[in-house]
Structures are given as structure tokens and as C-alpha cells.
Amino acid sequence: MSKSAELKKQLNEAREYVVKLSTPQHFADRKPGYIHTLNVDTQIGFQASPSAQNYWKHKEFDAALAKVVRDQFSILAEAALAEMQSAYTEARISDKEGLLAALAEIEALEGDAA
Q1: Domain range enclosing 91
Q2: Based on the structure, what is the number of domains in the chain?
């Protein structure tokens, strides 16, 4: 599978994933999907001096950041989907050169066969 085809597949799957948050479930209450689990685990690389600690974690900050992500999820999900769309678009456009080369080869073969 080409890179652009894989990115398109991932983008479509991500769109289907996110839409579950606004789609009623099959159950009697018909409530939409919800974020069941959201984990944030950051690590900052910073070394103040030789032999000092290199990597830093802060679980309380991560918990607060997870709350912000949960509260802003729809905005962040939209941005993530836009990022995925951009990556797909870039990859698909880069396919053009290969497709044109393949077309030129096919046309040459057709000319030889005639």
C-alpha cells in the first residue's frame, strides 16, 4: 500500500472514530459515544548542567493537561483531523511524479505495441 493510500485509510478511520462522540449508541438511552479513557504522559528533556537530571515528569501537570484536552477535545480533534488531512494531501500530491512516469511508460509501451 502506498504511503498516501495508508494515510487516506488512517484519515477515514480517524473520522469514523471521532464521529462516535456525536452518534447515538444502539442502547435504549441512545446517548452518544463518550471519551472513556484519555491519558496524557509528558516528559520534558532538560539538563541544567553536566551529570544533572535529563528528563522530567510531573504527574499533577499531566492530570491538569488531560483535563484541558478532555474539555477542549472537539477543537483538538478537529485540529488533529486537519493535520491528518494535510499529511494525506501532501503525500498524494507527491504521488503525481510517479504516476506521470508510469503513464509515460505505458504510453511508450502502447506506441511500441502499435
Answers
A1: 3-113
A2: 1
Check: CB of residue 73 under 8 Å from CB of residue 35. yes
pTM above 0.90, yes or no: no
How does pLDDT run along the chain (114 residues), one tens digit per residue?
899 999 999 999 999 999 999 999 998 789 999 999 999 999 999 999 999 999 999 999 999 999 999 999 999 999 999 999 999 999 999 999 999 999 999 999 999 988
* Phi, psi angle pair for 41, to nearest 5°: -140, 90
How far apart are the C-alpha atoms of 69 and 81, rounded to whole Å?
15
> Using CB atoms within 10 A of its CB, is residue 112 exposed (0-12), middle (13-18) or buried (19+)?
exposed
φ and ψ at 45, to 5 degrees? -90, 120
